[in-house]
Write a structure and sequence with these properties.
With about 80 residues, the protein is of the alpha+beta class. About 15% of the residues lie in helices and about 40% in strands. The two termini are about 20 Å apart.
Length: about 80
């Protein structure tokens, strides 16, 4: 599934990035967002950015960016 499909308070694992997004993947890696990392979706409202936390760093990604990140659901975090 795509990160854009994850729900608030869900924990997901980064599986990979959409093909053809090498520059985007490099940018995320420079911020500490890598394949295999666990990501907590902090806030995902109906509109606006998706707020996530990865490796202790909080990031806001636009939905277009989140659609390029392939993830696997781990569990819901309450």
């Amino acid at each position: 599934m795509k990160l854009s499909e994850a729900k608030s308070n869900e924990l997901v694992k980064v599986v990979g990035f959409e093909k053809g997004c090498d520059e985007f993947a490099c940018k995320l890696e420079s911020m500490g967002f890598r394949k295999g990392d666990t990501v907590k979706v902090l806030n995902k409202s109906f509109f606006g950015p998706i707020q996530v936390e990865v490796n202790g760093v909080k990031l806001a990604l636009c939905r277009g960016q989140a659609k390029k990140i392939e993830v696997k659901k781990i569990k819901e975090h309450r």
